[in-house]
Design a protein that fits this description.
11 strands, about 190 residues, homodimer, glycosyltransferase (chains A, B), alpha/beta, two-stranded antiparallel sheet, PRTase-like (chains A, B)
């Protein structure tokens, strides 16, 4: 997606070989016109997949998620992240490890909102090691529903998440793929 | 806002005299068409206020916030909530107490994204005691910017936040105002 690639080139800040900061348009401040275009692009990519739900994770997935859900005319659900929680009957729980923050979180979704027969599109802002996407996919599968695809705004293609998700049989569409962040420069795949 | 009032009546669950659960369309699952209408309504209410930024707080403020920012054609910033953090030069920090969760959080916004001269519209999903809205307003004022208004999706008008914010001189517009949650029934103001 050219518009997004331009934005990454103009406003992305390479903190080191692993971390790209995009807090001016995606993670903290958000560009709503760009988010709308992101939603349109995911809709174009996954049309024909009979999506019935969009699932994302708080917080940075919500803006691209809601714009995609709007275009697809289906509800958005966002998984909540918690440090740990007491077991409850009414929620699906999965453990997700964040390599960036070096901590585990439990992600939760109410059982009310995903059902057998649902075809769920997973949306997230970043893909690196794939931990969050796999956690969301396991929740969809716990619910007896199907992962119709995984839409990623920015994939760090030099990390293994994209390959691992593809090997697990998921269709992954990343709007921007980054091959390297060496020497302070973003190289696109 | 009639559409929203209907949704509260049909899908809101009164947990007790203080707590209304709206996780089927606002807090966990989100109705994107309703969120778009919410954004349109805030834009109608605050047009003429020369808004330059929309400010909200993660996570449930992001969907109504991004839809409002899209209609107003300005950026959205969402404040992050943290348990506590080491002091940093590059962020504004305010302490916010949650009566619901009975805990204090620090909310943070990068100094890069609000500037003197900005006219900021604060958006949040709920207004009860006004703690979050006051915290966001203090951040806007720390930045030397102006609070152009406060837009609330659902105000619990039997709690003091709306009155306190008005007394402090802020213009508050709530799309739905709830007078009471007694006996499991929502009474609108």
């Amino acid at each position: 997606m050219q518009l997004l690639q331009n934005k990454v080139r103009e406003e992305g800040i390479v903190l080191n070989g692993q971390v790209l900061k995009v807090d001016s348009f995606l993670n903290h401040q958000m560009d709503p016109v760009l988010m709308k275009e992101v939603g349109r692009e995911f809709t174009r990519l996954f049309q024909g997949e009979n999506i019935t739900r969009v699932l994302t994770i708080e917080s940075s997935g919500i803006a691209p998620g809601i714009m995609t859900a709007l275009e697809l005319e289906v509800p958005l659900i966002f998984a909540r992240k918690q440090k740990s929680l007491t077991l409850r009957e009414d929620i699906y729980v999965e453990k997700v490890y964040s390599f960036t923050k070096q901590e585990s979180n439990e992600i939760t979704v109410s059982k009310k909102f995903i059902h057998p027969g649902d075809r769920v599109l997973i949306i997230d802002d970043f893909l690196a090691n794939g931990e969050a996407a796999f956690g969301l996919a396991r929740i969809v599968e716990q619910a007896g529903a199907e992962v119709a695809g995984i839409g990623i705004v920015i994939e760090k293609a030099f990390q293994p998440g994209g390959r691992l998700l593809a090997e697990a049989g998921y269709r992954v569409e990343s709007l921007v793929r980054i091959a390297a962040l060496d020497n302070g420069v973003v190289t696109f795949a």
